[in-house]
Amino acid sequence: MASTNANVWGLHDPSLIKHQSYIDGKWVNAKEGGSILVTNPATGEELGTVPEMGLEETKSAIAAAGKAFASWGKTTARHRHHILMKFYGLMQEHNDDLARIITLENGKTLAEAKGENAYSASFMEWYAEEAVRTYGEHIPSPFTNIRNVVIKQPVGVVSILTPWNFPSAMITRKLGAALAAGCTAVIKPPPETPFSALALAELSRRAGVPDGVINIVTTQKNVVEVGREMCESNTVKKVSFTGSTPVAKSLYGMAASTLKKISIEAGGNAPFIVFDDADIDQAVEGAIACKFRCSGQTCVCANRIYVQSSVYADFASKLAEKVAAFKVGNGLDETTTHGPLIHERAVSKAMRHVEDAVSRGAQVLVGGKRVDGTGTFFTPTILSEVPAGALFDVEETFGPVAALTKFETEEEVIALANDTNVGLAGYFFSRDVGRVWRVAEALEVGMVGANTGLISHATIPFGGVKQSGIGREGGHGIEEYLNQKLIAFGGI
After folding, report:
1. Is 321 assigned a catalytic role?
2. Most buried residue, 13, 273, 356, 393, by most Cβ within 10 Å?
3. How much is the pLDDT for 373?
4. What pLDDT score does 1 carry?
5. Which pLDDT score, from 0 to 100, does residue 3 have?
6. In angstroms, what CA-CA distances link 290 with 248, 276, 295, 331, 428?
7. Burial of 392 (0-12, 13-18, 19+ CB in 10 A)
8. Which of 183, 231, 294, 299 is catalytic?
9. Cα torsion for 131, 133, 136, 139, to the nearest 10°?
10. Known catalytic residue: 265?
11. Angstrom distance (rounded) from CA 59 to CA 47
C-alpha cells in the first residue's frame, strides 16, 4: 500500500498530501499493491510512495471520465467558469503549501516554486474567462433558403501526460483548457513528482469539480501499457503531452491509430543570440533568467548561446561573474539560488556535455562539475569557445550549463540557430529595429524572445515548430479541446 512520510512535508494543510491515485472521485490504491517511491532530489530523503497503477486502473479511470463527460459536457460555460475560479482561488489560498510540495519533490527553490504555483493558477483563471468566450459563427449562405451556423462542442475525454520540471503548471495549462471547454480528463503525472498533481486533485474536489471529471493515474514501471491505453482507447478523443521528442513521436503514433486530436509540446534546443548592438547588461540578465531558471531544466532554456565577436569577451566575463555568485543547495534554504537536478541521469548528461565540449577545445570559465555529497547537484557552468559539432548542437542539455560560441555576421548566426530539427523557442538581443524584425521572422521557432529571456505566461500561444510539437497551449488553446460543428438550417 502506498504511504507518505508526514514528517517531511511541514504543510499548513497536511490533507493536501495524498498517497493514492484519484479515480471517479475516490482515492484508490493499485489493485496489485505496487507502489512508487518518491524522494527529495536535494537530500535523497524519502517523501512517500504512490500507487503503481496498471492497465486495469487506467481503463477504470478512462471509463469514469467517459461517464462524467455525459453530464459535464452539457454544463454551461458560466457554470464551468465559476468552478474554475474557485479552483484558482484555492490555489492562491494554499500557495505556500503547494510551493513547498513542488520544492520537496522537484528540488527547485521555494521562490521559484511559489512562482510556478502562481503561473499554474493563472491558467485556471485565464481559462475560466476563456470558457465564456467560445463563440460560434454565422456564415452567409449562397442559397436564400439556407442559414449556416457553426457551434463549438467539447471533444470529450482527454488524456494528459506531463513532465516533472513543472509538476503543477504543466497540468493546469492543459487541464484548465480541457475543463473550460467541457471535457473530462485522465492525467498521468511523472513518477518523480506526483504529489503536486494529487494535491491539485484534492483542490479540484473542494472547488466542486464533479466525480470522474478529473482522474489521476500514477505509474512508473507500467508506463508503456498505461500510456498506450491513454492514447489508443476509443473513449479518449484527445491526447495532450509535454515531454521529450522521442516519447512524443511514440505517443503520436499510438494516438494516430484512432485519429485522435493531439497537442504536443516536445523538446527544444533554443538559440540565444547577442548582437554587437545589444545592451550587454540586459543580455546577461536575460541569459541568466532564460538559461538558469529551474537549474536549466526547462524546455525553453537557452541551449546554444551565440555572441558576436566584438562583444564576446564583455558578455562572457559579465555572465561568468554573475554565475560564479550563485549558491547551489536545498531549495528550502532561503539563501539558495539554484536547486538540484531531478536525478542522477540528469547530472550525468550535464557532465557528458561539458566533457564533450572541453574535449573539442572549449574552456570552463565557471563550474563544470558535479557537487560532491548528498543530492543530485551540478555547479552552474559557463563554457567559452564552444566549437561547432559539440553535443550542445544536437542535444538539449536540460541542466545549468551555458555554452558560448562566437559568430561574425547576422546571416551566419541565423544559419547556426536554425540548424536543428526542433524549434520551440529562440532569443536574441539587439537595439536595431530592422534587425529585430528580420531575426524574429527568420528564426525557425514557435516563440521568440526579443530583448527578453522570459516569454511564458497564460495568455500567449505556447508551442513549437519542426519536431518541437503540434498545436498551442495557453492563449486561445481552448480551441484545441473543441470541435466545430456546422448546422445548416434549410426550408427557410
Report:
1. no
2. 273
3. 87
4. 57
5. 61
6. 24, 20, 10, 19, 11
7. buried
8. 299
9. -160
10. yes
11. 28
